[in-house]
Amino acid sequence: MTIRLVVIENQTLVRYALRELTSRNPDIEIVAECHSAAEAAQAVSQARPDVVTVSVNMPDGDGLQLARELRDRYDSLGIVILTSRGEDDVLFRALETGVSAFVDETAPVEEVLGAIRHSAVAASSFTASGLATALTRRRESRERLALSPREVEVLRLLCDGLSVPAIAARMFISYSTAKTYVARLYQKLGVANRAQALMVAVQHGLISCEPEAAGAFARPSIPA
């Protein structure tokens, strides 16, 4: 059975490469292409694909947020994230979003084809070639940082946007104690301010934040 594919990609060269790739593989057919997140919903609704490829970097939005919206709407849709950004935090955001596969745009042809075919038959099963290595790095980072329960709570409150006095009030501790906790947390993370602390914490998997807008953080989920 032919896999019906919709390509959501703003890069002309990537779209061309996918067209060339699928033209040589008769089990995959591109049934629609769109250049922006705004076009995606209508394209998917009309074309009824088995799989979509979604670029992380869209001109009018976040590709991972678009993937989340597609997953919420279509349970059985295979979703392949194509990215030029191979950072661990992007990979783990993709995993948390519920996509089917995560592939670097420079990956070998067989890896891209494999991701599309995997997604067509196992939409809810995540695959990424670098997942095992990324998980090892995450575990080692957590062990190296080894935040105390109090420091994890401070990190949570910082992500919620609370000031040091507000953190002290919420935790029923003195201002000086709260300030010490924040300073110790910054030292462990190797940062100088709140924004850097949140970025490093996300990168190391200490918190998981979905950006609501550029530069903004939503309420985190602190892993066990």
Coarse shape: elongated
Oligomeric form:
single chain
Distance between the termini: 42 Å
Q: Could you state the order of secondary-structure elements as H and E?
A: EHEHEEEHEHEHEHHHHH
Secondary structure: number of strands:
8
Low-pLDDT runs of 5+ residues are 211-224
Mean pLDDT reading:
87
The Cα radius of gyration reads 20 Å
Helix content: 40-55%
Count of alpha and pi helical runs: 10
Biggest β-sheet, characterized? 6 strands, parallel
Spatial sequence of strands, sheet with the most strands: 2-1-3-6-7-8
Derived structural class: alpha/beta
Strand content: 15-25%
Which helices and strands appear, and what pairs or packs with what?
Blueprint: E1 3-8, H1 12-23, E2 28-34, H2 37-47, E3 51-55, E4 57-58, E5 61-62, H3 63-73, E6 78-83, H4 88-97, E7 101-104, H5 109-121, E8 127-128, H6 131-145, H7 149-159, H8 164-171, H9 175-189, H10 194-203
Parallel strand pairs: 1-2, 1-3, 3-6, 6-7, 7-8
Antiparallel strand pairs: 4-5
Helix pairs in contact: 7-9, 8-9
Describe the structure.
With 224 residues, the chain is of the alpha/beta class. Helix content is 52%, strand content 15%. It is built from ten helices and eight strands. It has helices at 12-23, 37-47, 63-73, 88-97, 109-121, 131-145, 149-159, 164-171, 175-189, 194-203; strands at 3-8, 28-34, 51-55, 57-58, 61-62, 78-83, 101-104, 127-128. Strands 2-1-3-6-7-8 form a six-stranded parallel sheet, sandwiched between helices. Helix 7 (149-159) packs across helix 9 (175-189) and helix 8 (164-171) crosses helix 9 (175-189). It is elongated, with a radius of gyration of 20 Å. The termini are far apart. 31% of the residues are buried.
